Amino acid sequence: MIKLEDFHRLVSPRPVALVTTVDEKGREDVSTFSWITPVSFDPPLIALAIGPNKHSYWNITRINEFVVNIPTEKMIDKVWIAGGPWDPKKSKIEKAKLKTKPAEKVRPPLLSECPVNLECIVETARKAGDHVIVIGRVVKVHAKDDIVDDRGNLKVDVVRPPLHVADNLFAFPYVTKTV
Ligand SMILES: Cc1cc2nc3c(=O)[nH]c(=O)nc-3n(C[C@H](O)[C@H](O)[C@H](O)COP(=O)(O)O)c2cc1C
Q1: Is any ligand 1 atom within 6 A of the Cβ of residue 35?
Q2: Is there an atom of ligand 1 within 6 Å of 78 CB?
Q3: What is the CATH number of the domain that holds 125?
Q4: Which atom from ligand 1 is nearest to the alpha carbon of 51?
Q5: Which of these, 63, 102, 139, 162, is most buried using a 10 Å CB contact count?
Q6: Which of 19, 28, 31 has the most ligand 1 atoms within 8 A of CB, as the residue to mutate?
Q7: Could you tell me the pTM of the whole model?
Q8: Does residue 170 belong to any structural domain of this protein?
Q9: Greater model confidence, 177 or 93
Q10: Which protein residue's CA is at the shortest distance from atom 23 of ligand 1?
């Protein structure tokens, strides 16, 4: 019998994002999130469900900016490191050997290896049970030319983004069909 609190294991797999943030001193953090979804076309809004005990939660709610970086299959080890605990002595960006470059409109950095980076400014945050739903307005989109088709869709068979089931279980199913 599946426990009620395990329902999320059935709403899967979900795309994984590496979310970059900074604190007041400009110290950078990266964290893995899979409770993430677009919620509005116009204005372009994206929602993250974040545990309020996460270091990235404090950065996001103090600085009001974050970047959603979409990783590739090859980056799965880095995805796992970014999902580990914050360490005041060594940034997870360094631990995961992630390369960064400056964003255009926000302070947190872009992850260079990620084919997609969405620069976001916090629009609102609302407590939802044991998480907080943070809604960000997408203010700049970066997508490498070779990973989008002519309609702007992600070429999932090229990027092969890791999809999260739960815990350390990921899916890599890449067949696309137009219906
Ligand atoms: C694949 C994966 C997906 C995750 N999704 C979420 C999520 O959606 N929300 C959340 O609060 N934590 C999520 N986590 C856990 C955080 O990444 C983890 O607590 C991390 O230590 C937070 O780092 P921080 O304290 O530096 O922000 C996920 C972890 C992994 C590995």
Answers
A1: yes
A2: no
A3: 2.30.110.10
A4: 11
A5: 162
A6: 31
A7: 0.97
A8: no
A9: 93
A10: 31
What value does the mean pLDDT take over residues 83-88?
A: 95
Give the DSSP letter string of 161-175.
--EEEETTEEE----
Three-class DSSP category at 177? coil
What pLDDT digit, counting tens, does each position of 31-72 carry? 999 999 999 999 999 999 999 999 999 999 999 999 999 999
Number of Cβ within 10 Å of residue 69's Cβ equals 27
**Mean pLDDT of all residues in the chain?**
97
Ligand 1 atom at minimal distance to the Cα of residue 57: 27
CB 6 within 8 A of CB 160: no
The pLDDT tens digits of the residues spanning 152-164 come to: 999 999 999 999 9
Domain-located, residue 169: no
Asked whether the beta carbons of 21 and 178 are under 8 A apart, the reply is no
In the chain, how many domains are there?
1
Which residues form the domain of 106?
A: 4-164
Token pair of 15, please? Answer: 């795309």
CB atoms within 10 A of CB 67: 28
C-alpha distances in Å from residue 143, one per residue of 22, 71, 146, 147:
22, 12, 9, 7
Does residue 152 lie within any of the structural domains? Answer: yes
- Which residues have CB under 8 Å from 120's CB, separation 6+? 46, 65, 66, 67, 68, 106, 136, 137, 138, 139
